[in-house]
Design goal:
Belongs to the ABC transporter superfamily. Keywords: ATP-binding, Nucleotide-binding, Transport. With 287 residues, the chain is of the alpha/beta class. It has a domain of 174 residues: Rossmann fold (3-Layer(aba) Sandwich). 33% of the residues lie in helices and 22% in strands. The strands form two sheets. The protein has a six-stranded mixed beta sheet with strand order 6-7-8-3-9-10, with helices on both faces. Helix 3 crosses helix 5, helix 3 packs parallel to helix 6 and helix 6 packs parallel to helix 7. The N and C termini lie far apart (42 Å). It binds adenosine-5'-diphosphate.
Amino acid sequence: MFVTTPSPTVAAATDEPVVELRDAAFGYGERPVLTHVDLTVHRGEVVAVVGPNGSGKSTLMKGLLGLNTLSSGTVRLFGEPLHEQGDRARMGYVPQRHTLSASVRATAEEIVASGRLPRLGWFGRLRATDRQIVARSLELVGLSDRAATEVSTLSGGQQRRVLIARALAGQPEVLVMDEPTAGVDVASQHVLADVLARLAARDVTMVIVTHEVGALERLLTRIVVVDAGRVRFDGTPAQYAAARSDVHHDHDSHHHDHELDPGHGHPWSPVGSAPFEGVAPRRSRRA
Ligand code: ADP
């Protein structure tokens, strides 16, 4: 088999994190919601961010996009400080629980084309290449045959896919998605998971807030657990499963560790429907 060895410069460029948070604290106004966050994402990774409602997952996503207050620490994107990022379109965003309003009178293609705007500049017009990218984005989410359909007539799951296609049309290097599979039926969740798998196969870097780790597990490279405003765990799906079984073992042995058990009922378990029981904090696991 013919194997090429990447030159050191290519390897260095590939290894440079696309997202790097160091002791970051994010919030709204004066009050930080999320503190002491260390997080590094490399190109091609698919990272799930899980945790109970209100724990700070959306706040973390908005923090990555510069949409809230960074009160301490640092955020670097593509090797540069967040506030020095000239090209915001390098980060694509699919916001939480967002479906298109019934009052929007636009076709799927028109909505997806609006995602091209950051690449056109003000008053820019779509050129042939832009139209090809829009068509390709619709194809990637499996909606080529719905390009001319009014979005208000599409199902919730299809509307989510239109919104993912809209983000893709901006040709982001990192796609940040807040609960892309929430609130859609199980069949649509599987379709969405297939769409995300297709993107992962094309090395699209993704950071995905999700309740449905199960549906996405096969494509994840990392799982990050956020609870009560802190990152409690950051590891591979295998380490995550092992940490969970450690916790179960501890419970069996009656060694109850309150730090491992935030005590919220929570349905995100990747190993059946057990309630949220937390996982080992990563600093103590490294020690
Ligand atoms: P999650 O995504 O894990 O459900 P969030 O990040 O949405 O959690 O919320 C974490 C905390 O931040 C909650 O206490 C919430 O009330 C607060 N919060 C979220 N958005 C805002 C906002 N725009 N202004 C003030 N507080 C907010």
